[in-house]
Amino acid sequence: MAPTPDFGQTDPGLAVLRMAALIAQGQGGPDDETLDLLFEQVEAGHLVDADPALMWPELVRGLMSPSPSKMIRTLRGCGALVEILPEVAALFGVPQIADGQDEVDLGEHLMKTLDAAAKRGATPPVRFALLAMNVGKSDSPREHLPVHYKHVERGRPRIEEMCARFGAPADCRELALLALCECERVHRVTKMRAGPVALMLERIGAFDAPQRFSELMTVCACDFCAHEGREGQNYPKAALLEIALAACAGVTETGSAEARQSARAEAIALAFRSERWSSEVG
């Protein structure tokens, strides 16, 4: 049973998001009466003047719940999603090609990625990155769909604006922007090209920001596992990058950046050609 809305103890606009977050924490979904009450608050315009900075804790509460998709579905069902997260609302109905899979609806896929993150006990930056990283795809030219050319260029200012609007912490902003640029590249990484892998590891913080690297791997794994038939599978590209990172452990940090990159690429190439590594990556 959904919790009972209490619009008398807090700002009505904030209460809409709080109720959606509480529903995401519970066992069931919203009943028709609850959705009607939330819809009335939205129709009354209570979200128009709501302070997004005050909404951030409630948004995080919902994202960190066992079923974040329930929050998104509830907000969408009562008309609040387009008011609170218009960038996310615009993703529903937008198709995308999935590697080896049928096309997916980006909004539905987003909800699956969030639930995958919840199952992994992912951090707030990971969940926010999954919420935000595809917002540049909502208005891709229709003649190009389901491919999304230049979505990174469109997505970056939208993520920046979302973070400024809510007052999101720096770690959430940084990971969302990193995922925007790198998630699809990680999905395409191959052991046939050691040089680009070495450059990628440096770019995504594998050597100097291990937590950010780990969180990006979680983002990519959740995105991968949200596709049909992949739930619970290991993410092979993360295993590949871990092998590459381990191969670089013996490379000295002295010397020029070019020499260091060359040494890392050579170490990665040797590891990728190793029969032992190949059998593990499959």
Order of helices and strands: HHHHHHEEHHHHHHHHH
Any idea what the radius of gyration is? 21 Å
Structural class: mainly alpha
pLDDT averaged residue by residue: 90
Count of alpha and pi helical runs: 15
Topology:
Elements: H1 12-25, H2 32-43, H3 52-63, H4 68-77, H5 81-84, H6 86-89, E1 95-96, E2 104-105, H7 106-119, H8 124-132, H9 151-166, H10 170-187, H11 194-203, H12 210-225, H13 236-247, H14 257-273, H15 275-281
Antiparallel strand pairs: 1-2
Structure description:
This protein has 282 residues and is mainly alpha-helical. It folds into two domains: 12-84, Hydrophobic Seed Protein (Orthogonal Bundle); 95-281, no CATH class. The chain contains 15 helices and two strands. It has a two-stranded antiparallel sheet with strand order 1-2. Residues 275-282 have low confidence and may be disordered.
Structural descriptors:
15 helices; 2 domains; mainly alpha; single chain; 2 strands; Hydrophobic Seed Protein; 282 residues
Summarize the structure.
The chain is mostly helical and 282 residues long.
